[in-house]
Amino acid sequence: MARPGHSTAWLPLHWTYHAVNGTADIAYRAPSGADGWVGWGINPSGGGMAGSNVFIASQTSGAVSVLTTILRNTTPTLDNTALSFDVPVPASAEYAGGAYTIYATVALPGNTTSQNTVWQAGPVSGGRVSQHSISGPNVQSVQRLDFLSGTSTGGSNSRLHRRNLHGVLNAVGWGILIPLGAMIARYLRVFEAADPAWFYLHITCQISGYVLGVAGWGLGLKLGSESKGLTYTTHRNIGIAIFCLATLQVFALFLRPDKKNKYRVYWNAYHHSVGYSVIVLAAVNIFKGLNILKPVTGWKTSYIVILATLAGVALVLEAITWAIVLRRRKRNQAYGGANGTGVQL
Fold first, then answer.
1. Residues facing 180 on adjacent strands
2. Alpha-carbon radius of gyration of the chain
3. How far apart are CA 140 and CA 192, in angstroms?
């Protein structure tokens, strides 16, 4: 193979591009146990794994071999098939120092130097290549690379940034502002001096949380559409349920009966049950999202601290407001209920 002319700092890939015939000699090296596999490839049809043409190196009984296959989805049957682009020189691989190195010469699809590249690693089971992990770095291993200039754009860094933004928007919107707004409505309205300020604070938190949550939800849908064949079903379904319930809450504001209306009690029951359902589902889904993203431990710890703080404040306010309400009821009973008003928690 020709002496490598380019390399990447973010990926152990070296290559030489031959402009005369539009081919590239590549050498891809990645660490792996002897019972594992590594792969590298090009996706001519998109930016994800599905549709990628890949070279996979593994070994059986000490003999290293290279399998070529096209990933029709993210959980394929990895049979040895011809790639959709030309491979002028049969690929080869070696295993040394706890790492595989794949050597291949490829005719760049479409005769263009800018390509969507992918890479992966996983286990071998029963002598066959098995499914790699579908979380953490394994779902970030895509990058658009220019084989002529050596520059890269988009890919894993951009996608990881959007995944993190999706998580932050949802955590702040659904996971912090919505519960905070519910606490304001439940506890501050007990204090006569806080009326009607508590209502406007409640609405501000709920609308802000809804806007941020919907933005994060929409970004999640976009990320899902870019990951064909990879679906976090439970996380997605809970997210859809949260959006639907929260949207119902928004529309319910326009149907809120007057306080003296006989149907107000039913509206209150609906409003409270749907609101608390959103809060519980949001907390569950945020933790599921953290398990998917697998960020540094500090992020999950920070969210746990925030939840614990909100819960602690809620417990203290629950005791204080109930004491105020009971004392107020006792006072009203003493005066025959002629003066003062009661507050229902």
1. none
2. 29
3. 53
Concatenated DSSP letters for 242-253? HHHHHHHHHHHH
The pTM (predicted TM-score) of the whole model is 0.58
Query: Fold identical between 6-153 and 158-334?
Result: no
| Phi and psi at residue 55, to the nearest 5° | -110, 130
Q: Strands (DSSP E) along 32-98, which ranges?
A: 36-43, 53-60, 63-70, 89-96
Residue 152, token pair as written in the block: 């890269």
The residue ranges of every structural domain in the chain are 6-153, 158-334
Q: Name which CATH class applies to 6-153.
A: mainly beta
274-321 pLDDT tens trace:
999 999 999 999 999 888 776 656 788 889 999 999 999 999 999 999
- Does 235 count as an annotated binding residue? yes
Class at the top of the CATH hierarchy for domain 158-334: mainly alpha
Report whether 171 contacts 177 (CB < 8 A): no
Kindly state the helix (H) or strand (E) to which residue 25 belongs, with its residue range.
strand 23-31
What are the phi and psi torsion angles at 306 (to 5°)?
-60, -45
CA–CA gap between residue 126 and residue 130 (Å, rounded): 9
Q: Is 6 annotated as a binding residue?
A: no
14 is in an annotated binding site: no
Q: Does 161 carry a binding-site annotation?
A: no
